[in-house]
């Protein structure tokens, strides 16, 4: 009995990484919501490529037979894996659940709708395995398939706008910020705090990677539209409004000084505009007749100064958060 701790320490020294996990464990995360048409083929395709990988299907209150089919397919193939049900609706919640639950070395995330090529998974995980990337993105744009296959121009425009902004803010050159086909290493997954509920998850992953200076590699992949009878869970108009909200949020959280600085400039200018008659009164008569405008101008200038102060405070806070994050990585 008394010898147990010694043995443990010896084992621990031999393999300081983790005793319970084999090296290079690959986990494939498949969020699935009403995907009964395609889930079986998706699981089979990934299992065929990576027979030893752990496949986690995160079902989300699907009204169809997704859960049963996924379970049956895993069993039939003799694949390692499980189907879990996440009660809170949304792809973000599904991925959050998967990332919290699985301990692997390499994580792959893909759609359960047969749109991404499973046979390219080797190319996706290779840079992560080699330690040259923290996140690899299957880029649907470069091969031109996505534009041809995806018949929603508004959706494409929204994607383009957000991508432009993010690339500009982070001086990056990412081609496909919203791809759902990705591979990650454990450090990325275990330091990624998922606060988004739904489809913003892909954009959020790219933001996390850029902001925290993780290495991103994009690999062009083929993209097929969903098979007939299978429908996207994305709603163009609802998600179009979300694109705008996303842009505001990105600026507010990732560039607070820029966001509140521009607000300060805007209010400052409006204040000056309101002050024009006030000053001309003073110059002409040495008296102010436009008293309400004088009050308005003063109020606007106060708001401007406050915006700037808020921006500076938030900027300092986000700087501190970055230092904390880096310290956490070193630990
Ligand atoms: N678990 C879960 N998965 C979801 C949810 N919404 C979408 N998905 C899955 O996320 C993947 C991407 O969704 P999809 O509709 O294909 O989006 P698109 O590829 O952008 O058109 C698919 O596998 C969906 O089944 C959800 O609310 N919960
Ligand atoms: Mg899809």
Automatic annotation (TrEMBL):
Q: Which domain of life is it from?
A: Bacteria
Instruction: Give one GO molecular function term.
Output: transferase activity
Where does the chain cross the membrane? 259-279, 291-314
Please list which residues make up the signal peptide.
Answer: none
Which Pfam family, an example, fits this chain? Glycos_transf_2
Instruction: Kindly give the InterPro entries that the UniProt entry links to this protein.
Output: Glyco_trans_2-like, Glycosyltransferase_2, Nucleotide-diphossugar_trans
Q: Where is the Glycosyltransferase 2-like domain?
A: 28-191
Keywords, sorted A to Z:
Membrane, Transferase, Transmembrane, Transmembrane helix
Q: What is this protein called?
A: Glycosyl transferase
Instruction: Look up and give the organism this protein is from.
Output: Undibacterium terreum
Read off the lineage from the record. Bacteria, Pseudomonadati, Pseudomonadota, Betaproteobacteria, Burkholderiales
